[in-house]
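Practice set, problem 2.
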Amino acid sequence: MAKLVLPDPVTLPSGLIAAVEEDEWVPGAVQLTIDGTPQSHVNLRDETELFFEYVRRMGHVIDLFRPEGAPISALHLGGGAFTLPRYVEAMRPGSRQQVIELEGALVDLVREAAPLPKRASIRVRRGDAREVLGKLPAGMQGAMDLVVVDIFAGARTPAHVSSFEFYELIRPLLAPGGVVVVNTADGTGLPFARGQAATLASLFPSVAAIAEPQVLKGRRFGNIVFVASTDPLDSLDWMPRLLAGGPHPARMLYGAELSELIRGARIVTDATAVDSPAPARELFGRG
């Protein structure tokens, strides 16, 4: 198969370098990197295929929280290569989606390298997620089935999109039974992730954390997916099925176990928020 013809890397206004590269091992797939950190992976031949483990966990939530195949209204904070918007469209045709992405040059790069499906109803709003949240149309209040928070500047989540005040802007957007799915990365002791758990639990009656067991124990750096809802998660029959689809090994903390994770952690506010920790350079082969 001929190699894909991809655009040259671009320097974003932030000074970071964005590149879309062909996956040598998966024909027809591309990967977006920011300053060498893998951000997104898209199989252009099959957009239902999710490559990164944490994205697959997020995909399972999308599969299960509403009736199979039913279209949804979704808001994605952080665009990347639009992996999850593509997945939603493939699995739930007819869904209405909006994406907020800070880096306009990144949007243009991705659209050139991996155009969105023509049939998809995906609107892109350019700008800082927190600023744009405060300017969304009134009609979006109480109308979002799904809000995905996957915001990274390079390898780190910026402080201003990790606070109580930030999540407070998201809660009114949820439709009944809607969920917020948050991707968080942390390492030893989980100081950042524990703060995120405490903050989400202060706003949403139900919060669960899903990850590889060693990551949840704070023994190695990795991604934790938080699922939050204004409805009791333990009353939703899809929750027990989240781990069944893998990737394995997997563990979910909810109820008393999540309370144990949060113990001693403080709610993150604008005054106390910090960027998430950077992974070790060798984690992505950049040592």
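Problem 2, part (b): a different protein.
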Amino acid sequence: MHRRFGCAALLVLLVFGCETPPQESLTVAPNIIYILADDLGYGELGSYGQTKIKTPHLDRLAAEGLRFTQHYSGSPVCAPSRCTLLTGKHTGHCHVRDNYELGGFADDEERGQRPLEPGSFTLGRMLQDVGYATAAVGKWGLGGPGSTGIPNEQGFDFFYGYLDQKQAHNFYPTHLWRNTEWDTLRNAYFHPHQKFEGDDPNDPEAYDRYKGVDYSADLMADEAVQFIRDNADRPFFLYMPHTAPHLALQVPDDELAQYDGMFDEEPYLGDRGYLPHIRPKSAYAAMITRMDGHVGRLLDVLDELGLAENTLVMFSSDNGPTYVSRVDTEFFESAGPLRGGKGEVYEGGIRVPMIARWPGRIAAGTVTDHVSAFWDVVPMLAALTGAATPDDVNGVSFLPTLLGEGEQAPPSELYWEYHGRGWKGAQAVRIGDWKGVRLGGHDDANAPIELYNLATDLGEQNNVAADHPDIVVQIKAVMDSRSVSDIEKWNFAMEE
């Protein structure tokens, strides 16, 4: 175990060593804000090359901070990615290794996803232990109402948002959760997966039935801002897993208006899942811009309260861009130069944007190619705050990279596994520039391993496994080192 420190002055000494920083830094531990987008692709921010979607506040964040080009999510889908972030374990060892849905979509069937176990180590609990006020505001996905996994039982003093990620398929739900209490909204219930109903798909009024009064993402942004205000006089940790741009395609009309006349598009009629929308390209872009505005609100309140220089703000995405409904990810070049997207262990499914800003501590306008992943956030924040972590976390702190303390060696290996979307068991490993991918491992212990050199083949187009059998052996050894899950369908065939 790492030694635990309770004194804010010692926290700062841990970060800055023996040199004496400005006096105010000796008395105040840094605030931490971690914002997590939902299904945002590597190429969907202006700072990552996007030209069609407006993201001015996130572009400002990148201009004032550090942008990562080789940062990875924990999984190609929602719940396990969140589990790796909060526990510091990759999907070969963490409790949640795929989306595991309980209950249904209707309010009286809300049960959430597989819950974290009682007393689990989490990022929230780790920071509570060193005196932080903690909040989770957004989409949880690690335990439904009344379960052992709810945020208030897993290290968060305050929660507001969706407990069940199925409910988050609708941005106009009947309710959100405030801690353990149902918060009724001014929206009528409708199933978040239905086809167009109306006489004329080109009639804008025919789509009004898929709207409501209270847009959930706006309400959650309100709560995040209020949490900062309420805790401005003490160290705080705000975890904000935003719901955009995960479908359904829903956004207030004032945001949609920003994209009037910009795209050539046809109505989406809900025939491929989720809700219809008369302007699907504009709606998708506007959802990202709306989220960007929420980030701007957080930055503004930090400036207003004089907290910006003592707050580390991080932004990332839980996985790559969606593959369902009528989101034209090719039009937006959502994955940038990467292969694949959500639900795939190729780069497009797991390489994600990552931006970190801490004025005066992180050099503005910088870029790093340091290789890192979600499970590295726990040890990084432990190193920053002097908190304790279990011995079995998989991550490696990237604090030296954040603070510009010289080139940092990459992790020795990165590992992912995924059990959905018809791949019959997918695994991926990165060692240096080598990336191994194996599909079909549920049924075949000898399923072939594809091998790519990301330094020369970022798009993973040239499988060179036959030319490098020694590297393939190393990749397979990492894949075989995973622990057995108690969920049988989350395991792979074993060699006899």
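Answer key, part (b): The domain at 8-402 is CATH 3.40.720.10 (Alkaline Phosphatase, subunit A). The first strand starts at residue 31 and ends at 37.
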